[in-house]
Amino acid sequence: MFGKQRASKADEGAMTGNELIEAVATQQAATKSDVKKIIDAALAAIADAAARGEEVSIAGFGKFKVKQSAAREGKNPRTGEPMTIPASRKVVFQPAKALKDKVNS
What we know:
- The chain is an alpha+beta fold.
- About 35% of the residues lie in helices and about 25% in strands.
- The chain is built from three helices and five strands; from the N terminus they run ααβββββα.
- It has a three-stranded antiparallel sheet. Strands 3-4 form a two-stranded antiparallel ribbon.
- A hairpin with a 3-residue loop joins strand 1 and strand 2.
- The longest helix has 20 residues, at about 30-50.
- The chain is elongated, with a radius of gyration of 18 Å.
């Protein structure tokens, strides 16, 4: 899931997937390839659960939930003509209190 990622000007300061893998490998004294496999498997499991509409809760980190958005009327940005935006599902993340506290400390 993590390929070559290049930070754009808007993403300066953002951690890339490869940087995350390197940080975890360093903290856990593990190889980067082992950490990459574990992270890829975890993300795949989260994606599979989300596709089934299930909530995934990670203690101290947060919850991934699936929310349903109803169909609604909108406008075509090019022509201004009215159009129907179809209903869809989206994945949202709700951080845990521990994560919020760490970020705000």
